[in-house]
Amino acid sequence: MAGTEVYSLSDEAEGNSLDSIFEFEHYEVENPMPVNFLPFSPDGKGNHYCLDLAGNSDGICPIVFWQHDFEYDSIDAVEVCNDSFTDWIDEVMIEWTFENYNYDGTEK
């Protein structure tokens, strides 16, 4: 399911470590992300969920959804989809999974 992969620090063999994805999305693409966005989860279509490090408040950052093929007029136009990483986990990883699967792992 799209949005349920989270990059790690140890995915270097596949080129999916946080630092390699950060480097690619900020310096090697046609439409680079703002430097304060830390991409941590792809949607499978070239877009990413990102921590907005500029919004850090007491160690909690909002989650934004960066569309790689959209020309934003300003950084404020980027969608804030969750208030925190834990809110994102609750919605994307848990709620979306339970839309398609039962608690025992069987499909609905």
What's this entry about, in short?
The chain has 108 residues and is an alpha+beta fold. The chain contains two helices and four strands; from the N terminus they run αββββα.
Taking pLDDT < 50 over at least 5 consecutive residues as the criterion, the unreliable ranges are none
Largest sheet, in brief, is: 4 strands, antiparallel
Strand content: 15-25%
Number of strands: 4
Provide a count of the helices. 2
Give the overall silhouette: globular
Strand pairing plus helix content: what structural class? alpha+beta
Order of helices and strands: HEEEEH
Radius of gyration: 15 Å
Strand arrangement across the biggest beta sheet:
1-2-3-4
Distance from N terminus to C terminus (CA atoms, Å) equals 15 Å
Q: What is the average per-residue confidence, as pLDDT, rounded to a whole number?
A: 88
Helical proportion? 10-25%
Give a description of the structure:
The protein has two helices and four strands. The chain has a four-stranded antiparallel beta sheet with strand order 1-2-3-4. The chain has helices spanning 18-27, 85-100; strands spanning 37-42, 48-52, 63-66, 79-82. It is 24% helix and 18% strand. The protein has 108 residues and is an alpha+beta fold. The two termini are 15 Å apart. It is globular. A hairpin with a 5-residue loop joins strand 1 and strand 2 (48-52).
Give structural attributes.
108 residues; alpha+beta; 4-stranded antiparallel β-sheet; 4 strands; 24% helix; globular
